[in-house]
Amino acid sequence: MEALIFAHRGSSKTHPENTMPAFQAALESGADGIELDVQLTKDHVPVVIHDLTVDRTTDGEGFVMNYTYKDIQSLDAGSWFDSTFEGIRIPSLEEVMKWIKGTHLKLNIELKNGYPRFPELEEKVIALIRQFEMEERVILSSFNHYSLVETKRLAPELETAVLFMEGLYEPWDYAEHIGARALHPYLPVAVPELIQVASSKNMPVRVFTVNGPEQMKQLLKAGCSIFTDDPETAVSIRRNWRDS
């Protein structure tokens, strides 16, 4: 299986996470895809932000679900990272998909649908994927595996992936049971046995979040895709060992 490099929340080492500048930098780095997080505003617009609140990554405060889309667009999502990014906004998923459609990038959408639950999240995300005809380039992942099952019910053609942080027993069988086609384990539980058996079953393993150069090299050589905050370094490492 091809080892791919996904920019985790974009090039988030050098740019404010989950923003258009971070995604553009990921494209320019030579990454194969980007990973982003989606939840709904008060008026049910899918927006790209990781935390349940806007406190950490904007100049506002409070829960994302309590903001309308218009109000959340008034927040500064760049200055917290560096003053040069002042005025950067939280993008809508539609805005990102309109941009990514014209690139080669794959897109991993993490459905932030644990607590609180967003009953319409799967339906609205799927509608955008179909609107932009991105079915073959999108992966939907979540820590809420009920959300993955609902996704498969609504859109069986889409690839779903199990996110997990524990040492699950035979996770490939569990993934198949819920209709998922890939495993997205946390780096500490991505043990060699998991990688080897999953590979033998033709189930992709994509590990998060891999920022150490030696770990990048080992996993990419083992055929694992990775999510990294530093796609520039990962792309350079992959290029160097392929050329050596």
Annotate the secondary structure layout.
Blueprint: E1 5-8, H1 20-29, E2 33-40, E3 46-48, H2 69-72, H3 93-100, E4 106-111, H4 121-131, E5 138-142, H5 145-154, E6 159-164, H6 171-177, E7 182-185, H7 192-200, E8 206-207, H8 213-221, E9 225-228, H9 231-243
Parallel strand pairs: 1-2, 1-9, 2-4, 4-5, 5-6, 6-7, 8-9
Antiparallel strand pairs: 2-3
Helix pairs in contact: 8-9
Helix and strand pattern: EHEEHHEHEHEHEHEHEH
Number of strands: 9
Main β-sheet: number of strands, strand sense, barrel status?
Answer: 9 strands, mixed
CATH topology annotation = TIM Barrel
- Strand content is 15-25%
Q: Mind telling me the CATH superfamily name?
A: Phosphatidylinositol (PI) phosphodiesterase
Number of helices in the DSSP assignment:
9
CATH class: Alpha Beta
Basic shape: globular
Low-confidence stretches: none
Share of residues in helices:
25-40%
Distance N terminus to C terminus?
Answer: 20 Å
Radius of gyration: 17 Å
- What is the arithmetic mean of pLDDT? 96
CATH architecture: Alpha-Beta Barrel
Structural class: alpha/beta
Tally of individual domains: 1
Structural description of this entry:
Pfam families: GDPD (PF03009). It comes from Melghiribacillus thermohalophilus. Residues 3-239 form the GP-PDE domain. This is Glycerophosphoryl diester phosphodiesterase. The protein has 244 residues and is α/β, with parallel strands linked by helices. The protein has one domain: Phosphatidylinositol (PI) phosphodiesterase (TIM Barrel, Alpha-Beta Barrel), CATH 3.20.20.190. It has helices spanning 20-29, 69-72, 93-100, 121-131, 145-154, 171-177, 192-200, 213-221, 231-243; strands at 5-8, 33-40, 46-48, 106-111, 138-142, 159-164, 182-185, 206-207, 225-228. Strands 1, 2, 3, 4, 5, 6, 7, 8 and 9 form a 9-stranded mixed beta sheet that branches. α8 (213-221) crosses α9 (231-243).
